[in-house]
Write a structure and sequence with these properties.
The chain is an alpha+beta fold. It has 2 domains: 159 residues, Glutaredoxin, CATH 3.40.30.10; 122 residues, Jelly Rolls, CATH 2.60.120.260. Helices cover 19% and strands 34% of the residues. It is built from 5 helices and 18 strands. Strands 8, 9, 10, 11, 12, 13, 14, 15, 16, 17 and 18 form an 11-stranded antiparallel sheet that branches. The longest helix is centred in the middle third of the chain and has 19 residues.
Length: 313
């Protein structure tokens, strides 16, 4: 009976061979040992996932990656999370380790601080997934969020082929992971405060001259500096850090936040809605019910806050 799987000759004409993890800057969840693609080809089905920890799109994908890893790791499946940093602070090993623990990631993670593996795969996006079959070919590639059911079906197909190739017993026919992400409708584009990637959004305002604009971020030089932005979205996330803890008052349409306050917002006894910013990470400011247009204002108590991006959901 002819095999339902493609021959190596057909694969070589249809797909590209996977690239190696190149000049890694550290490993997490590997018991201190390096991990390579070449050592796994012929033994495992591999999902290479490019991510960076302050990226909200990556964060929303992580629960699916965690679920797939738990379901299929004993069936010959492994994920290699390639952490390619968008910002300088994301190169720090301890910062990445903290994020890995916070997001419940158990699969191996490789730090790609100089973008070597990113470049080898000719990647341009966070997140992006490359599925590598038992023979080392990239048989599936998905950019961004979504397509979780399609991706998991491809994983199951590749694992079924692995069973056949290695002559193992068993199946991988399991119910697909339920997709829980709800699309939020129209939303503003990701907005960068630094000069390197800023499109100078016309609805982003720094009302005074107390800001220094660096390639990756904007930094306030005086107390009581403000950021004002008119947005359309359901949710707002703010990537920021401060050398010392800084209090940021948050207003929407001139008022303190109500039920729409994000998980990082603190309500004070005098009715204000504030953020306490220190650690370099993504802070959730607004958590709405539907996509709407509003004006957000951040009033920063002390100098020295670094504002990297607004991201919307």
């Amino acid at each position: 009976m002819p095999s339902k799987f493609l021959s190596a000759e057909v694969k070589s004409k249809r797909y590209e061979l996977a690239k190696e993890v190149t000049t890694p800057d550290g490993f997490i969840n590997t018991e201190g040992k390096p991990i390579t693609v070449s050592e796994l080809v012929g033994k495992k089905v591999i999902l290479v996932d490019f991510w960076t920890y302050s990226c909200i799109n990556c964060q929303r994908t992580t629960p699916y990656l965690n679920a797939w890893y738990e379901k299929y790791k004993d069936k010959g499946f492994v994920i290699i999370g390639v952490h390619t940093p968008e910002f300088e602070f994301e190169k720090d090993y301890n910062n990445v380790g903290t994020a890995v623990e916070k997001f419940g990631i158990k699969f191996p993670v490789v730090l790609d601080n100089d973008y070597s593996t990113w470049i080898a795969y000719k990647n341009q996006y966070w997140p992006r997934k490359y599925l590598i079959d038992i023979d080392g070919y990239v048989v599936y590639d998905h950019i961004g969020e979504g397509a979780y059911e399609e991706t998991e079906k491809k994983i199951q197909e590749a694992l079924s082929e692995r069973i056949a190739v290695l002559g193992e017993s068993g199946t991988v026919s399991q119910p697909l992971t339920k997709e829980t992400l709800v699309q939020s409708g129209a939303k503003s584009p990701e907005t960068y405060f630094g000069s390197a990637r800023s499109d100078q959004q016309k609805n982003l305002l720094f009302p005074n001259d107390s800001w220094s604009i660096w390639p990756e971020f904007a930094q306030n030089n005086s107390a009581n500096a403000s950021i004002i932005y008119t947005y359309t979205a359901k949710d707002i996330f703010f990537v920021a850090e401060s050398d010392t803890e800084t209090v940021v008052e948050v207003l929407r349409d001139g008022n303190p936040l109500g039920s729409e306050a994000g998980t990082d917002i603190i309500k004070t006894s005098d009715g204000k809605s504030i953020l306490r910013i220190k650690e370099a990470r993504l802070y959730k400011i607004i958590q709405g019910d539907k996509s709407e247009t509003h004006r957000i204002e951040l009033r920063i108590q002390k100098p020295g806050l670094k504002a990297f991006t607004f991201t919307f959901g």
